[in-house]
Amino acid sequence: MVEDLKLRGNEAFARGAFDVAEQLYSEAIDLAPSSHVLWSNRAAARLQLKQHESALSDAEQCIVLEPSWVKGYHRRALALKGLERMDEAFQSYQEACRQAPEDLWVRREMKKFRHELVKWNASRPVTSSDHFVSIFKRLDDIWDRLSTLAYFWNASDSGERLMIFQRFLEVLAGGSTPADPSVYTEEMMQPLPTKNYEHASKEPISLWMDFFNSLESGQKVELFARLWDVTSEAEKGLIVKDLQFFVLGSAETADQRADEVDE
Which GO molecular function annotation, any one, does this entry have (predicted)? Predict the structure, then answer.
């Protein structure tokens, strides 16, 4: 009886009769409430019917019954997405990946969702530095992260860039004051070129820029320090190279000029 109801539900789902499928799965659940597959299937039907709260409840019950069933996490994520609880949806995908680290399907689904999450975050105002750091940590494209830092740097005035750069030197020095910071001047704090980011279609996100521009100078410095903390080692290497070339290169040139004789 239960198997017959499930099969009929699957057939109804396949032909797009989601309300019929939902009813058949409900009847089957009444007879076999411990079947995680039935809860998962009804969640899928309710998702199609835009019944996100009910779908979320079903997906969570599925996970309780069978924590290793990755479709439960996937359907919970979709329900949370429908409720615009995007960070929780992402966490659900992370849990799925922890449960099944070798499952390529769930990893692909999480990657697709991360792209959606970036777009979703880009369409909403940033409320605080904590909020932005959490957004930044979700960016999985290195160019998204590096371009954001470059656009923030360029949006800072030369005095703010010098403060950011000096803080950067402190971080590299392990928290101690770097030797002779007076070598560096505001004039050296040039904008970073953004052609590479433009070619990669990484335009500045206006709501993120609005947030950054609303910060006081000290807050900008602290935000840069926090973003540095969550960058990967590969990103850190690229950032150091950029600063060495565009800023430290200026300092070396200045030192060379000081050592030259006048003709």
Answer: Hsp90 protein binding
